[in-house]
Amino acid sequence: MIFSARVLLATIAALLCLPSAVLAMQGDEAGRSVSSPDGRLVVAVDVTGEGVPQYGVAYGGEMVIAPSRLGMRFAAMKGFDEGFAIVGSSAGSADETWEQPWGERRFVRDHHNELVVNFAADDGRSFNVRFRAFDDGIGFRYEVPAQQGYDAVTIVDELTEFRVAEASTAWWIPSRGWNRYEYLYETTGLEEMDIVHTPVTFRMPSGIHLSVHEAALVDYAAMSLKQYRPGIFAADLAPSATAAGVVKKGPFTTPWRTIQVAPDAAGLVNSDLILNLNEPNRLGDVSWVEPGKYVGIWWAMHINDRSWGTDFIHGATTDETKRYIDFAAENGFDGVLVEGWNTGWDGDWFNNGDVFSFTETYPDFDLREVADYALSKGVRLVGHHETSGNITNYERQMADAYDLYEDHGVRQVKTGYVADGGDAKWVDDTGVAHYEWHDGQKMVNHYIHSVTEAAKRKISINTHEPIKDTGLRRTYPNWITREGARGQEYNAWGQPPNPPEHTAILPYTRMLSGPMDFTPGIFDLMPNERPQLEGAAPRHSTASRVETTLAKQLALYVTIYSPIQMAADLPENYEARPEPFQFIRDVPADWEESIALAGAVGDYLVIARQERGSDDWFLGAVTDEEARNISQPLSFLTDGVTYRAEYYLDADDADWETNPYAMDIGSRAVTSETVMELPLAPGGGAAVRFYPMNDE
Amino acid sequence: MIFSARVLLATIAALLCLPSAVLAMQGDEAGRSVSSPDGRLVVAVDVTGEGVPQYGVAYGGEMVIAPSRLGMRFAAMKGFDEGFAIVGSSAGSADETWEQPWGERRFVRDHHNELVVNFAADDGRSFNVRFRAFDDGIGFRYEVPAQQGYDAVTIVDELTEFRVAEASTAWWIPSRGWNRYEYLYETTGLEEMDIVHTPVTFRMPSGIHLSVHEAALVDYAAMSLKQYRPGIFAADLAPSATAAGVVKKGPFTTPWRTIQVAPDAAGLVNSDLILNLNEPNRLGDVSWVEPGKYVGIWWAMHINDRSWGTDFIHGATTDETKRYIDFAAENGFDGVLVEGWNTGWDGDWFNNGDVFSFTETYPDFDLREVADYALSKGVRLVGHHETSGNITNYERQMADAYDLYEDHGVRQVKTGYVADGGDAKWVDDTGVAHYEWHDGQKMVNHYIHSVTEAAKRKISINTHEPIKDTGLRRTYPNWITREGARGQEYNAWGQPPNPPEHTAILPYTRMLSGPMDFTPGIFDLMPNERPQLEGAAPRHSTASRVETTLAKQLALYVTIYSPIQMAADLPENYEARPEPFQFIRDVPADWEESIALAGAVGDYLVIARQERGSDDWFLGAVTDEEARNISQPLSFLTDGVTYRAEYYLDADDADWETNPYAMDIGSRAVTSETVMELPLAPGGGAAVRFYPMNDE
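Above: the input entities. Below: the structure tokens describing the complete assembly.
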């Protein structure tokens, strides 16, 4: 290539002046910047000499997003790329508090300033970008009004960029690989990043933490970030199997592109930005959406005690289900998940979703009998639909399948889309199969379709192998939880299983998007070392084990938020350890408030949550492979009240690798003045329940 | 996700049995395997239980490509993905030797066995894969016959995979980034690779070297490799700005997918596989395609002594061009390149190819005068067309532009496509601009169009910012060289400049695809430390310098093949060092034979080449940042002949960093029995000319 001196000089000048450029923009002209209510965050908007729209973000006077491109290009008409001027803008602000039907906190404050910038070109092209600046970050989205020639567009390239300080550290998982989101997080400098999923978290050299993600992903392809130049991450929309890009008709808006900003890691965890950028509840009365805890016929398959199909020892039998129902009823669980109840599991279901019926049961599973038995015990079945990523087979049966469950009192269905990345299948009207990414526009729409169809039957959906969460639970509160990261199951057969740091990274990355059905609570930490059952599939490698202490399994109920939490292990393993099991019996799944108290990405987290409609608090703390002693002030407790703290701590000699079961379980009186010592073992954790002593 | 025991067992079994699987396939059924003429390479073909076509490759009994998928999917019809059986096959072989009009060697032997496998599905879908097994690797391509419903297809996914041993080391550059191919090569394990360009080179744990690339890329998108699972690299076709994939009409064939295999690094360099998989010369008499050496008004711009436009000191003036013509004539150069002769360089040409005229000269450049002056001196002007990647502006002017050069005796034109990756521009009939990757289908076709249009005027094309080379020089011998990697120019302004290892990696990676206009021969190794000329643009950072010894600059004329080689430095810098300059005067650019003698990727290379139509040989050796002493047998020389060896070696105390000019220049008598000591300094090299002493 060739490189002119003039261009080089301009580039250097631009690089040198970036921080002042954005800050200067703020003051230069009205209508080109917006600040957060506390004034710390500033978004500035401008166009380059070529009329390329760009924005930048500063936080506390420090540039956090250097001037970055905005725009999009289309397959068949002029792009929104250059030749634009800012022809108008409007400002506004909002400060309202809304109530979640369930969530990490009951009341969420949406306090932001808004700026809508109108970009137009001489030839009539126009679009708007709506920015919202909150104290905890910013969001912006494109709003494309009706205009001549743009009634139907195919967006081949969204030009949105995020320019991040090159010396930052990042926590990320790759995008466009064989898996969807179930990778171990990488902790690297930017130079090792190519194309990554969001949320992606950055720690800048100054210590400021950023997370880039999106909110309200509807009828659009998910945005990954492609590092195009060092430090410049460009939006990379999931491809379509049938179109050159994202297909939109009429005026449209994109999902919100979000940048959460906090001075420290815990600050990210306390952000409500993603929820605030979603539309309010569209379902009306959602009292039928019920947070709670469940057990199920699930882990037994992962450790090969049972099988989904009838090839080894079938798990989903009437008798076995009743056994779980009895256990659930005795221990206060709300639901019993049953996987492998429907026909289709005996063939090669892994690559062939066509095999599944969602209404036909295996002969040894009497749906009516177990459903009625459950209801008689005050428990509900939790439904299960594995699609193998074949959405056509699922959609064809969907009404009947949800009707069937509704008829049997089922209020929650766990769905599954096990297919490799790029291999989610649909069949068009001519019988031709197409294969999509799980986060492509077609699949985005399918997942929402399943949620809205389920809502008609008062059924909530727990999506596995999902599209990533973008906060749509606010709009559709029956989208109650989902997977979308490496969960507990990897500890049964993963090579490697989840290392201790995994659950010290998730809260700062995946969990910023929303709840996760991680399925904590494994009590037999080395199941693959047990003797194999006669007739069962062989045990997995003993290298696959749970790399936590038992105390950390309890802590996960607090550190990893989900409104429905599984107690994932076998009933007999809980019965064998009643003392620690008491914490699982006690811990709720719905919260009045949540406060991340301290933490560092990949190292540790301490979080406290107040039970919804109660004075009780729960604390969870997790560490990575390092032991650490945390002196935690309990200032979140109500002043002047004495609480009993029932604690489940790692014993002095506990260690995930050598002595994982050693626990110090007890109780003591504490107040908001108390500084509680939390001794975290390597791979360890701490779980504490607090309740006012006058409740005793 | 969930994971059935059955699937896991099948997966493990498949993994364990892979080598025997491919080898077993070989013997199982006729028509499903093909071996190289020497029997060392075996390609086996099969379908899985689901009817998924796959192939594998073994070399000397070792699996080099584990069973890997074949197939493709379309936007609007059933894919060639599963449900296929092998319904027929045909075998053949060829052994012919063809002559290159110019090249690394005059005669190329094409000796291969061939297997065409016919895949068909019950519903009538059918396609063929043609495999060719050579001693130095294999190639295969899809051949899609005419069939109902497939008259026009959009290929949204080519399913071709290459499964490589996970413990391999790779040398690669990223794909889909801002640059095209001008990256420093990475030397890593597979875990750091995401999406990479080809050729990509692997060294397996056994020491076997592989290079995956493609041949004869015509009317198709270039293939990058995306590591989809660990060790599984999937074809990733460059996207289109207007279609969902590669658009093909009627029956079609794809480019050849190639895997060069050699027991050592030097073996890769000696491979002719890519050329052998291209179609023969379509241009007939190409005696007007003239290998040779050139100088030009070029480096002066890169070091900011001159400028392309008139903003600083304009380089392309009539007087300056005549000065270069005089120098060329005096020193035996064939051409003088002049960049910046045409209008358009004074604006923001970097992002705006519309500014360029390809027929209008700057007022201070008299094309007729300099062209005639050159011809009177036995020299030809070398033309230059920088397009900034705007192919519409170029194509509109192309006929006039080539006519103009033809009228002035120009036989070679250097073209340029400086635009970021994904930003090569074309404008459709409705005036809408589209932006493509340089290696997308649209651009692939444009580059060939420029070559065939030029051929009509007996003009050869030297493409900068090109599509990667895939051997099309065999078919279009006027596509004489190209850039397509980080060249010498980065030593003027690169941050960082090319490190010493760069030229010890290129021969094993980029150069496997074909010639490169690297432009060696910089004699002033620290130009940015010179005083700035009055009126010139400021010097670049002194951190940008040439990280070689002077001897290595000479060696590059032998180690980096190009049929047109530039002596890139300013005439005065050569005049200041006449002794080493003598080698550049002597070294030819066209060869009778080339033999890579020894080397290791990223460490060093020793190569010998015999001058076309002469008994003279030339040897080049380069090392990375490590000094090394090579004892090189001269067995390539004709037995019984005594040669004079004129050597240009690093002096004992030479070092690229501290003492780059120190050379040991001299001559001695040698024979094919001689073992010549080549002392390579850190960042050093060696250049030797051998000629029979009876010629003296």
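Note for the figure: Chain B touches chain A through 72 residues (CB under 8 Å).
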